[in-house]
Description:
By secondary structure, the chain is mainly beta. The protein has helices at 7-39, 265-271, and strands at residues 51-56, 66-72, 75-80, 85-89, 95-100, 109-115, 118-123, 129-133, 139-143, 155-161, 164-169, 174-179, 192-196, 209-214, 219-224, 229-234, 239-242, 254-259, 286-290, 295-299, 305-309, 316-322, 327-332, 337-342. The strands form six sheets. A four-stranded antiparallel sheet has the order 1-24-23-22, covered by helices on one side. Strands 2-3-4-5 form a four-stranded antiparallel sheet, with no helix packed on it. Strands 6-7-8-9 form a four-stranded antiparallel sheet, with no helix packed on it.
Amino acid sequence: MRWPLTRPQWTILYVLLAAALTGLTVAFFARSLMDRAAAVTEPTAFDQPPVFIGLHTMAGAAGLKPFALALNEKRLLVSYLSTDRVDEFSDRLVFKRTLHLLQNEPASITGVAVEGDRIYAADFKSGNLLVADYKTGKLVQSYGWLPGYKTRMKALGVAYHENNLYVSDVASGKMLAIGASAQKDVREEGELIVGFPNGRPEEFELGYPTWSMVTADGRLLVSDAKSGEVKAFTCSGRSAHLFDRAGEATLKTPMGIAMDDLPSPELLARKAAVFDPSRVNDQGRIHVVDATQARVKVFDALGKYVLTYGEELRQPNGIAIDPKRRLIFISDAQLRAIALYKY
Protein backbone atom coordinates (compact mmCIF):
# COMPACT_ATOMS: atom_id res chain seq x y z
CA MET A 1 0.00 0.00 0.00
CA ARG A 2 1.34 3.41 -0.95
CA TRP A 3 1.76 6.15 1.60
CA PRO A 4 0.06 8.50 2.22
CA LEU A 5 -3.31 6.72 2.03
CA THR A 6 -5.98 7.90 -0.35
CA ARG A 7 -9.26 9.28 1.05
CA PRO A 8 -11.22 6.01 0.39
CA GLN A 9 -8.45 4.01 2.08
CA TRP A 10 -8.53 6.34 5.09
CA THR A 11 -12.31 5.90 5.27
CA ILE A 12 -12.05 2.10 5.25
CA LEU A 13 -9.27 2.18 7.85
CA TYR A 14 -11.33 4.50 10.05
CA VAL A 15 -14.40 2.25 9.86
CA LEU A 16 -12.38 -0.86 10.72
CA LEU A 17 -10.64 0.90 13.60
CA ALA A 18 -13.91 2.28 14.95
CA ALA A 19 -15.52 -1.18 14.84
CA ALA A 20 -12.57 -2.71 16.67
CA LEU A 21 -12.60 -0.02 19.35
CA THR A 22 -16.37 -0.38 19.79
CA GLY A 23 -15.99 -4.11 20.35
CA LEU A 24 -13.19 -3.58 22.85
CA THR A 25 -15.16 -0.87 24.67
CA VAL A 26 -18.28 -3.04 24.98
CA ALA A 27 -16.23 -5.99 26.23
CA PHE A 28 -14.40 -3.75 28.73
CA PHE A 29 -17.54 -2.24 30.22
CA ALA A 30 -19.31 -5.62 30.33
CA ARG A 31 -16.36 -7.07 32.20
CA SER A 32 -16.21 -4.05 34.49
CA LEU A 33 -19.93 -4.35 35.28
CA MET A 34 -19.68 -8.05 36.09
CA ASP A 35 -16.53 -7.48 38.11
CA ARG A 36 -18.41 -4.89 40.20
CA ALA A 37 -21.17 -7.45 40.73
CA ALA A 38 -18.65 -10.10 41.79
CA ALA A 39 -17.18 -7.65 44.30
CA VAL A 40 -20.50 -7.63 46.21
CA THR A 41 -19.87 -10.67 48.39
CA GLU A 42 -22.22 -10.07 51.32
CA PRO A 43 -25.73 -11.35 50.51
CA THR A 44 -28.60 -9.00 51.27
CA ALA A 45 -31.08 -9.93 53.97
CA PHE A 46 -34.66 -10.93 53.17
CA ASP A 47 -36.03 -7.45 53.92
CA GLN A 48 -33.21 -5.55 52.18
CA PRO A 49 -33.34 -4.37 48.54
CA PRO A 50 -30.84 -5.67 45.96
CA VAL A 51 -27.71 -3.61 45.25
CA PHE A 52 -27.76 -1.70 41.95
CA ILE A 53 -24.61 -2.52 39.96
CA GLY A 54 -25.13 -0.54 36.77
CA LEU A 55 -26.60 -0.43 33.26
CA HIS A 56 -25.50 -2.58 30.35
CA THR A 57 -26.25 -1.30 26.84
CA MET A 58 -26.48 -3.84 24.02
CA ALA A 59 -23.78 -3.84 21.36
CA GLY A 60 -25.14 -3.33 17.86
CA ALA A 61 -28.68 -2.70 19.13
CA ALA A 62 -28.72 1.10 19.09
CA GLY A 63 -32.27 2.43 19.08
CA LEU A 64 -33.83 -0.93 19.95
CA LYS A 65 -35.93 -1.34 23.08
CA PRO A 66 -35.10 -4.46 25.12
CA PHE A 67 -38.22 -6.17 26.41
CA ALA A 68 -38.26 -9.86 27.31
CA LEU A 69 -35.44 -11.74 29.06
CA ALA A 70 -34.67 -15.42 29.53
CA LEU A 71 -31.76 -17.26 31.14
CA ASN A 72 -30.40 -20.48 29.65
CA GLU A 73 -27.89 -21.65 32.21
CA LYS A 74 -25.69 -18.52 32.38
CA ARG A 75 -26.56 -17.26 28.89
CA LEU A 76 -28.93 -14.29 28.80
CA LEU A 77 -31.38 -13.97 25.90
CA VAL A 78 -32.86 -10.55 25.14
CA SER A 79 -35.72 -9.73 22.76
CA TYR A 80 -36.67 -6.28 21.50
CA LEU A 81 -39.92 -4.51 20.67
CA SER A 82 -40.86 -4.18 16.98
CA THR A 83 -38.37 -6.75 15.70
CA ASP A 84 -37.91 -10.53 15.42
CA ARG A 85 -34.41 -10.19 16.86
CA VAL A 86 -33.22 -12.15 19.90
CA ASP A 87 -29.67 -11.56 21.16
CA GLU A 88 -27.63 -13.97 23.24
CA PHE A 89 -25.06 -12.77 25.80
CA SER A 90 -22.46 -14.76 27.71
CA ASP A 91 -22.26 -15.17 31.47
CA ARG A 92 -20.27 -11.91 31.53
CA LEU A 93 -22.81 -10.04 29.39
CA VAL A 94 -20.56 -10.16 26.35
CA PHE A 95 -22.52 -10.28 23.09
CA LYS A 96 -22.37 -13.71 21.43
CA ARG A 97 -24.86 -13.80 18.54
CA THR A 98 -28.14 -12.57 17.06
CA LEU A 99 -31.05 -14.80 16.04
CA HIS A 100 -33.79 -13.57 13.69
CA LEU A 101 -36.68 -15.92 14.38
CA LEU A 102 -38.71 -14.81 11.35
CA GLN A 103 -35.84 -14.00 9.01
CA ASN A 104 -36.23 -10.23 9.54
CA GLU A 105 -39.96 -10.25 8.83
CA PRO A 106 -42.09 -7.76 10.83
CA ALA A 107 -42.49 -8.97 14.41
CA SER A 108 -42.39 -7.90 18.06
CA ILE A 109 -41.04 -10.58 20.38
CA THR A 110 -42.58 -9.87 23.78
CA GLY A 111 -42.01 -13.20 25.50
CA VAL A 112 -39.13 -15.70 25.47
CA ALA A 113 -38.52 -19.07 27.11
CA VAL A 114 -35.76 -21.61 26.49
CA GLU A 115 -35.83 -25.35 27.10
CA GLY A 116 -33.36 -27.85 25.67
CA ASP A 117 -32.91 -27.24 21.95
CA ARG A 118 -35.97 -25.01 21.60
CA ILE A 119 -36.71 -21.30 21.91
CA TYR A 120 -40.35 -20.42 22.54
CA ALA A 121 -41.30 -16.86 21.70
CA ALA A 122 -44.48 -14.79 21.77
CA ASP A 123 -44.77 -12.56 18.71
CA PHE A 124 -47.19 -9.83 19.76
CA LYS A 125 -47.43 -8.39 16.25
CA SER A 126 -48.95 -11.54 14.74
CA GLY A 127 -50.20 -12.95 18.04
CA ASN A 128 -48.45 -16.24 17.29
CA LEU A 129 -46.46 -18.52 19.55
CA LEU A 130 -43.19 -19.30 17.75
CA VAL A 131 -41.07 -22.42 18.21
CA ALA A 132 -37.49 -22.12 16.93
CA ASP A 133 -34.32 -24.20 17.00
CA TYR A 134 -32.04 -22.82 19.71
CA LYS A 135 -28.81 -23.53 17.85
CA THR A 136 -29.76 -21.91 14.53
CA GLY A 137 -32.75 -19.72 15.37
CA LYS A 138 -34.64 -21.35 12.48
CA LEU A 139 -38.41 -21.38 12.90
CA VAL A 140 -39.75 -24.89 13.50
CA GLN A 141 -43.42 -24.29 14.23
CA SER A 142 -45.92 -21.49 14.77
CA TYR A 143 -49.23 -21.59 16.63
CA GLY A 144 -51.84 -18.86 16.31
CA TRP A 145 -55.32 -20.39 16.24
CA LEU A 146 -57.43 -21.73 19.06
CA PRO A 147 -59.17 -25.09 18.50
CA GLY A 148 -61.76 -24.87 15.73
CA TYR A 149 -59.68 -22.33 13.77
CA LYS A 150 -62.23 -19.58 14.36
CA THR A 151 -60.42 -17.54 16.99
CA ARG A 152 -56.85 -16.26 16.90
CA MET A 153 -54.85 -15.83 20.05
CA LYS A 154 -52.73 -12.78 20.87
CA ALA A 155 -49.69 -14.07 22.72
CA LEU A 156 -47.77 -11.60 24.90
CA GLY A 157 -45.77 -13.79 27.29
CA VAL A 158 -44.69 -17.43 27.50
CA ALA A 159 -43.36 -19.61 30.33
CA TYR A 160 -42.17 -23.23 30.24
CA HIS A 161 -42.72 -25.83 32.95
CA GLU A 162 -42.56 -29.63 32.81
CA ASN A 163 -43.28 -30.01 29.11
CA ASN A 164 -46.06 -27.39 29.11
CA LEU A 165 -46.09 -23.86 27.74
CA TYR A 166 -48.11 -21.21 29.57
CA VAL A 167 -49.06 -18.47 27.13
CA SER A 168 -50.56 -15.11 28.14
CA ASP A 169 -53.37 -14.56 25.64
CA VAL A 170 -54.54 -10.94 25.86
CA ALA A 171 -57.24 -11.49 23.22
CA SER A 172 -59.21 -13.88 25.42
CA GLY A 173 -57.89 -12.65 28.77
CA LYS A 174 -56.81 -16.18 29.63
CA MET A 175 -53.74 -18.25 30.28
CA LEU A 176 -53.37 -21.04 27.74
CA ALA A 177 -51.61 -24.26 28.74
CA ILE A 178 -50.17 -25.81 25.55
CA GLY A 179 -48.29 -29.09 25.22
CA ALA A 180 -44.67 -28.46 24.29
CA SER A 181 -44.23 -31.96 22.85
CA ALA A 182 -46.32 -34.97 21.92
CA GLN A 183 -47.15 -37.76 24.35
CA LYS A 184 -48.24 -40.97 22.68
CA ASP A 185 -51.99 -41.64 22.98
CA VAL A 186 -52.30 -38.59 25.27
CA ARG A 187 -51.76 -35.40 23.27
CA GLU A 188 -50.15 -33.89 20.22
CA GLU A 189 -47.42 -31.27 20.16
CA GLY A 190 -48.99 -27.81 20.33
CA GLU A 191 -52.31 -29.13 21.63
CA LEU A 192 -54.28 -26.77 23.87
CA ILE A 193 -54.66 -28.53 27.22
CA VAL A 194 -56.65 -25.93 29.13
CA GLY A 195 -57.50 -22.24 29.08
CA PHE A 196 -58.19 -20.47 32.36
CA PRO A 197 -59.66 -18.85 34.43
CA ASN A 198 -63.25 -19.74 33.68
CA GLY A 199 -65.28 -17.21 35.64
CA ARG A 200 -65.23 -18.53 39.20
CA PRO A 201 -64.41 -16.96 41.54
CA GLU A 202 -64.79 -13.55 39.91
CA GLU A 203 -61.76 -11.94 41.60
CA PHE A 204 -59.49 -14.38 39.77
CA GLU A 205 -60.63 -13.27 36.32
CA LEU A 206 -57.84 -11.93 34.11
CA GLY A 207 -58.26 -8.79 32.02
CA TYR A 208 -54.85 -8.43 30.37
CA PRO A 209 -52.40 -11.18 31.40
CA THR A 210 -48.85 -10.12 30.62
CA TRP A 211 -46.22 -12.52 31.98
CA SER A 212 -46.20 -15.53 34.25
CA MET A 213 -43.89 -17.91 36.07
CA VAL A 214 -44.23 -21.33 37.69
CA THR A 215 -43.00 -21.77 41.26
CA ALA A 216 -41.16 -24.84 42.53
CA ASP A 217 -44.35 -26.10 44.20
CA GLY A 218 -46.34 -25.85 40.97
CA ARG A 219 -48.26 -22.57 41.26
CA LEU A 220 -48.62 -20.38 38.19
CA LEU A 221 -48.18 -16.71 39.10
CA VAL A 222 -49.75 -14.35 36.57
CA SER A 223 -49.31 -10.59 36.20
CA ASP A 224 -52.57 -8.90 35.15
CA ALA A 225 -52.05 -5.39 33.76
CA LYS A 226 -55.77 -4.53 33.66
CA SER A 227 -56.49 -5.17 37.36
CA GLY A 228 -52.96 -4.26 38.47
CA GLU A 229 -52.65 -7.51 40.41
CA VAL A 230 -50.69 -10.74 40.58
CA LYS A 231 -52.87 -13.83 40.85
CA ALA A 232 -51.79 -17.37 41.73
CA PHE A 233 -53.29 -20.48 40.13
CA THR A 234 -52.47 -24.15 40.12
CA CYS A 235 -50.94 -25.29 36.85
CA SER A 236 -54.27 -26.94 35.99
CA GLY A 237 -56.00 -23.56 36.25
CA ARG A 238 -57.63 -23.65 39.69
CA SER A 239 -57.54 -20.41 41.66
CA ALA A 240 -55.03 -20.45 44.53
CA HIS A 241 -54.53 -17.02 46.16
CA LEU A 242 -54.08 -13.31 45.51
CA PHE A 243 -51.10 -11.11 46.35
CA ASP A 244 -51.14 -8.12 48.70
CA ARG A 245 -52.59 -5.16 46.79
CA ALA A 246 -52.90 -2.21 49.19
CA GLY A 247 -50.53 0.58 50.22
CA GLU A 248 -46.93 0.04 49.14
CA ALA A 249 -47.92 -3.30 47.57
CA THR A 250 -50.13 -1.57 44.98
CA LEU A 251 -49.29 -2.42 41.38
CA LYS A 252 -50.39 -0.48 38.29
CA THR A 253 -48.98 -2.35 35.30
CA PRO A 254 -47.35 -5.58 36.49
CA MET A 255 -45.16 -7.15 33.82
CA GLY A 256 -42.16 -9.47 34.32
CA ILE A 257 -42.14 -11.79 37.32
CA ALA A 258 -39.33 -13.93 38.76
CA MET A 259 -38.23 -15.54 42.03
CA ASP A 260 -34.96 -15.46 43.94
CA ASP A 261 -33.84 -17.96 46.60
CA LEU A 262 -34.08 -15.94 49.84
CA PRO A 263 -36.75 -17.61 52.03
CA SER A 264 -38.87 -15.59 54.43
CA PRO A 265 -37.82 -15.91 58.11
CA GLU A 266 -41.52 -15.66 59.00
CA LEU A 267 -42.45 -18.59 56.76
CA LEU A 268 -39.45 -20.62 57.93
CA ALA A 269 -40.52 -20.09 61.55
CA ARG A 270 -44.04 -21.21 60.67
CA LYS A 271 -42.64 -24.33 59.03
CA ALA A 272 -42.07 -26.01 62.40
CA ALA A 273 -45.76 -25.76 63.28
CA VAL A 274 -47.42 -26.16 59.89
CA PHE A 275 -47.20 -29.26 57.73
CA ASP A 276 -45.94 -28.06 54.36
CA PRO A 277 -45.53 -30.87 51.81
CA SER A 278 -45.29 -28.33 48.97
CA ARG A 279 -42.25 -26.67 50.61
CA VAL A 280 -43.66 -23.19 49.93
CA ASN A 281 -42.13 -22.03 53.20
CA ASP A 282 -38.64 -22.78 51.83
CA GLN A 283 -39.06 -20.71 48.69
CA GLY A 284 -37.69 -17.25 47.98
CA ARG A 285 -38.93 -13.75 47.20
CA ILE A 286 -41.11 -12.94 44.20
CA HIS A 287 -40.04 -9.89 42.16
CA VAL A 288 -42.75 -8.17 40.09
CA VAL A 289 -41.79 -5.45 37.59
CA ASP A 290 -44.23 -2.53 37.36
CA ALA A 291 -43.81 -0.70 34.03
CA THR A 292 -45.93 2.31 35.00
CA GLN A 293 -44.43 2.93 38.44
CA ALA A 294 -40.95 2.07 37.09
CA ARG A 295 -40.24 0.00 40.16
CA VAL A 296 -39.95 -3.62 41.25
CA LYS A 297 -42.24 -4.82 44.05
CA VAL A 298 -41.02 -7.78 46.10
CA PHE A 299 -43.30 -10.27 47.87
CA ASP A 300 -42.72 -13.38 49.96
CA ALA A 301 -43.48 -16.84 48.59
CA LEU A 302 -47.19 -16.49 49.41
CA GLY A 303 -47.64 -12.95 48.08
CA LYS A 304 -47.10 -10.84 51.21
CA TYR A 305 -45.47 -7.49 50.39
CA VAL A 306 -41.84 -7.08 51.49
CA LEU A 307 -40.17 -4.09 49.76
CA THR A 308 -39.75 -1.94 46.64
CA TYR A 309 -36.59 -1.17 44.66
CA GLY A 310 -35.49 0.18 41.27
CA GLU A 311 -35.38 3.99 41.48
CA GLU A 312 -32.84 3.85 38.62
CA LEU A 313 -35.45 2.38 36.25
CA ARG A 314 -37.59 4.29 33.75
CA GLN A 315 -39.71 1.80 31.77
CA PRO A 316 -38.86 -1.70 33.01
CA ASN A 317 -40.57 -4.77 31.60
CA GLY A 318 -38.71 -8.07 31.68
CA ILE A 319 -36.80 -9.69 34.55
CA ALA A 320 -34.56 -12.74 34.93
CA ILE A 321 -32.86 -13.92 38.12
CA ASP A 322 -29.76 -16.10 38.42
CA PRO A 323 -29.86 -17.53 41.99
CA LYS A 324 -26.41 -19.15 41.74
CA ARG A 325 -24.72 -15.80 41.21
CA ARG A 326 -27.42 -13.77 43.04
CA LEU A 327 -27.86 -11.58 39.94
CA ILE A 328 -31.00 -9.81 38.75
CA PHE A 329 -31.36 -8.63 35.14
CA ILE A 330 -34.12 -6.12 34.26
CA SER A 331 -34.82 -4.83 30.74
CA ASP A 332 -35.68 -1.15 30.43
CA ALA A 333 -37.19 0.03 27.13
CA GLN A 334 -36.69 3.74 27.81
CA LEU A 335 -33.09 3.41 28.96
CA ARG A 336 -32.46 0.90 26.15
CA ALA A 337 -30.37 -1.12 28.56
CA ILE A 338 -30.29 -4.01 31.00
CA ALA A 339 -30.16 -2.95 34.65
CA LEU A 340 -28.03 -5.29 36.77
CA TYR A 341 -28.61 -5.84 40.50
CA LYS A 342 -27.17 -8.21 43.08
CA TYR A 343 -28.87 -9.55 46.19
